[in-house]
């Protein structure tokens, strides 16, 4: 899937122009789970809706499964959309239909004969583990089960691409894990390409292979999830990540730390250990090289997309210029360093 230079502008009542998409280009490889993350209003929904042309971009190119969709007539477009399933935040199930009839709905619209519909519905419900709920109505299901029905409905036409629009945002954390696990399993089983949008980095960390961060209609950062998490380049990405894998300094810790001596400064730092230098004894080496006292406050090992990395909070004491030199050295080694302002941990 290749989206190139997509633009979509809306003029609002006060005739201000909203650039929902301001030149977005993205490529998603077959079989990949690709996340688009951004705050509310960043343009994520507009972007994902451009993939099946529920939203038509003002300009740009939308190539899906090797074909440009923008030039197709209505009949051809309807046909191609069957290869692109979509899952919604609020499930969008029809309350008057049973689970099986909800899943059958896109097949009915596509004119699939009844016998074939039955087979496909059974197949889709089995894939999401809800075969025994076929005759139930949506009101009899939990949120997680409703989303499983939403996923089965998206899968019934046997698509190659699955679009997930905040698919877990209405679910509790445990159910979110379940649904994300299911999406990953389905990708593996059915060789699906998944494009998902979310405002939560935790979702990206859990299942995506690559991620694009959007802000004001533009992609501000893109890459492998592990790289973006461990070496974020843009301040907005850093803020997003801080919410997910930020330092964990116990409350009151800063107040208990020794004050810096005469002529000394104290800096709180978060160090991410990832990449080729992550196993080097950088803490003691930095201490020797720059004459610093490095007080380890907290540390843990976390995992992103199956790859481990270390995260540590330190208090560095020493001459201010030596601390700066050590920071530069850490950065040179490719370790992610983020100063933690005292105010971020005091007074909790
Ligand atoms: N049909 C429309 N008419 C006018 N403005 C629109 C329309 N659709 C989207 N916008 C505006 O475009 C911008 C991007 O919206 P979009 O819904 O794509 O963002 P988002 O990142 O998905 O946010 P959210 O998570 O809140 O949906 C917003 O400023 C929004 O108000």
From TrEMBL:
Q: Which UniProt keywords apply?
A: Amino-acid transport, ATP-binding, Cell membrane, Membrane, Nucleotide-binding, Translocase, Transport
Q: Boundaries of each ABC transporter domain copy?
A: 1-241
Establish whether keyword Zinc is in the entry.
no
Q: Which SMART domains match?
A: AAA (SM00382), NIL (SM00930)
Q: Does the keyword Translocase apply?
A: yes
Family annotation (PROSITE patterns): ABC_TRANSPORTER_1, ABC_TRANSPORTER_2
GO BP of this protein: amino acid transport
One GO cellular-component annotation of the UniProt record comes to: plasma membrane
One of the entry's Gene Ontology molecular-function terms is: ATP hydrolysis activity
Q: Which domain of life is it from?
A: Bacteria
Give the Gene3D superfamilies listed for this entry.
3.30.70.260, P-loop containing nucleotide triphosphate hydrolases
Query: Of which family is this protein a member?
Result: Belongs to the ABC transporter superfamily.
Q: What's its job?
A: Part of the ABC transporter FtsEX involved in cellular division. Important for assembly or stability of the septal ring.
**Name of the molecule in the record:** Cell division ATP-binding protein FtsE
Which species is this UniProt entry from? Teichococcus deserti
């Amino acid at each position: 899937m290749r989206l190139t230079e997509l633009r979509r502008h809306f003029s609002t009542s006060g005739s201000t122009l909203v650039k929902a998409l301001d030149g977005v280009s993205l490529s998603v490889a077959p079989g990949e789970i690709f996340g688009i993350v951004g705050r509310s209003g960043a343009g994520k929904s507009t972007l994902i809706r451009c993939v099946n042309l529920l939203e038509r971009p003002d300009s740009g190119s939308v190539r899906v499964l090797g074909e440009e969709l923008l030039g197709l007539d209505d009949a051809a477009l309807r046909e191609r959309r069957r290869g692109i399933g979509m899952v919604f935040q609020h499930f969008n199930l029809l309350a008057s239909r049973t689970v099986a009839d909800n899943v059958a709905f896109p097949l009915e619209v596509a004119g699939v004969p009844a016998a074939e519909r039955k087979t496909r519905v059974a197949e889709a419900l089995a894939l999401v583990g809800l075969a025994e709920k076929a005759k139930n109505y949506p009101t009899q299901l939990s949120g997680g089960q409703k989303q499983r029905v939403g996923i089965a409905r998206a899968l019934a036409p046997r698509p190659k691409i699955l679009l997930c629009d905040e698919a877990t945002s209405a679910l509790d954390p445990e159910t979110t894990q379940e649904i994300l696990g299911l999406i990953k399993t389905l990708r593996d089983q059915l060789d699906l390409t998944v494009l998902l949008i979310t405002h939560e980095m935790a979702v990206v960390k859990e299942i995506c292979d690559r991620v694009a961060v959007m802000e004001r209609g533009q992609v501000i950062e893109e890459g492998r999830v592990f790289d973006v998490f461990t070496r974020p380049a843009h301040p907005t990405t850093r803020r997003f990540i801080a919410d997910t894998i930020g330092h964990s300094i116990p409350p009151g810790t800063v107040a208990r730390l020794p004050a810096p001596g005469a002529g000394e400064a104290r800096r709180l730092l978060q160090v991410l250990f990832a990449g080729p230098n992550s196993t080097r004894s950088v803490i003691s080496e930095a201490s020797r090289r720059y004459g610093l006292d490095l007080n380890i406050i907290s540390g843990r090992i976390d995992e992103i997309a199956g790859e481990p990395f270390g995260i540590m909070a330190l208090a560095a004491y020493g001459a201010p210029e030596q601390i700066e030199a050590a920071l530069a050295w850490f950065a040179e080694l490719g370790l992610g360093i983020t100063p933690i302002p005292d105010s971020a941990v005091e007074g909790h």
